[in-house]
Design brief:
This protein has 236 residues and is α/β, with parallel strands linked by helices. Helix content is 27%, strand content 27%. Helix 1 packs parallel to helix 2. The longest helix is centred in the first third of the chain and has 18 residues.
Length: 236
């Protein structure tokens, strides 16, 4: 029986879930944007209280690795690494794009298994972090940053239904011109969605290096530096 603490902080929401043998035993979600710094640690503390109350023992810590919010990913990864180190358990990484694709799989019960799933994480303007997966989660298009145009995804098979989802998908509806394209709304990654992928990694002993693992940003963070307003005020 695997007991896994799951942490998701790649998007605007923050969430933590406790799973036991593939079933969600407890979860908490804060949907207020960018509250990872204040909400994740209390959620983890509540999860650990549940572990104590049910006389369980954590076997692994799973964390969403990105892409997504730079700040959220750093907070989630730091917290997960600290927990895994303190509890002396392995650290599991769950790719956010795969997480969104898996959530979509469970959302639509009419899928045949031949569809192509295209998760999208908003990267501002017409850019998204995206990939394309089949139902084995093999990447038909590898994870990448992409500026969406009407020619996007035309290299995918045109005889299969293509489904777009994630917080970056809505803005592509009027741009992507594919006759076999469909959109699925409100498919946002949550900690309780991580369970299937985390369990798979645990069974296969697919763990992150606790010392050297970092979030999967895809693109390096670029800070925007403007004129220092204090200099303007002082005239220097």
């Amino acid at each position: 029986m695997a007991v896994i603490l799951n942490i998701e902080s790649s998007q605007s929401a923050s969430s933590v879930a406790l799973s036991v043998d593939g079933n969600v035993e407890w979860s908490a979600v804060e949907r207020e944007a960018m509250h990872q710094a204040t909400d994740l640690a209390p959620f983890v503390a509540q999860a650990m209280e549940e572990v104590t109350r049910k006389e369980l023992k954590i076997d692994a810590v799973a964390v969403s690795t990105g892409p997504g919010s730079y700040t959220g990913l750093r907070i989630g990864m730091s917290l997960a690494k600290g927990l895994a180190f303190g509890l002396d358990v392995p650290l599991i990484g769950v790719e956010t794009l795969k997480l969104i694709a898996v959530k979509a799989m469970f959302r639509n019960l009419n899928f045949t298994g031949e569809e192509i799933l295209v998760p999208m994480v908003d990267a501002r303007r017409m850019e998204v972090y995206t990939a394309a997966y089949d139902f084995r989660l093999d990447a038909l298009i590898p994870p990448q940053a992409m500026i969406i145009t009407e020619d996007s995804f035309k290299e995918l098979p045109q005889d299969r239904q293509i489904w777009f989802m994630g917080d970056g998908a809505a803005k592509t509806r009027d741009v992507i011109k594919l006759p076999n394209a469909h959109w699925m709304d409100d498919v946002l990654p949550m900690a309780f969605d991580m369970v299937a992928l985390a369990e798979k990694s645990f069974r296969e002993k697919d763990f992150l290096d606790l010392a050297y693992s970092v979030p999967f940003y895809i693109k390096d963070y670029e800070a925007v530096h403007g004129e220092n307003p204090l200099k303007q005020l002082l005239g220097c």
